[in-house]
Design brief:
Blueprint lengths: L12 H19 L6 H15 L1 H5 L2 H4 L11 H19 L15 H21 L4 H10 L3 H21 L5
Helix pairs in contact: 7-8
Amino acid sequence: MMENKTPKEFLSPLTAGIGLGLALMFMFLITGHGLGANGFFIRLSVWLSDTVIPVWTENNNFLYTMTGDGNPLNEWISWEIAGVALGALAGSLMSRRFRFKIERGQSIGKPARILLALIGGILTGFGAQLSRGCTSGLGLSGGATLAVAAFVFLIAFFVAGIVVSLITRRIWQ
C-alpha cells in the first residue's frame, strides 16, 4: 500500500497560539520558570570555554562570573531545549514536512544564504543578551507576566524584523 507523502496543513494561528500558551503555563507550573533558550546557549558556551580553555575563561570578565554553574545538563533550561528539538523533529516527521534543504530565494546562492543566516543568528544572540532575554524568554514569558520590558522588546523585535525584511526582500524574489 502506497503511503501519502503530501504534507499536512499547518495548524491555524489560533490553535498554535493556544498550544503555545498551554506550553508556557505548564512550564510555569512544572518548573517555576517560563520558556527561554538564550540561557542554555550561554551556559553551554561558558561550560565549553571552561572545559577547553580554562585560563582564557578565568581571564574573561563576562564568562568567569558564570563558571560556578557547573555542567549545563544540570539545568532545567537544557532539558527544555532538548524537548524543543525533539518536539520539532517529531512534529515535522508527523506532518511529513521534514526535509534537508536550505530555504532561499532565486537570486541568492546557498553560501550567501548560510552567511546571512549566520549573521542574523549572531545579531539575534547579541540582541537577546543585550535585552537580557530571547523572544521566548523575554517576549513570551515576560509578556505572560505583563512585564513592561517584554512589550518594549517585542515592539522593537517586530520593527527590526520589518526593517530587515524591507532591506533584504529583493534576494527572496
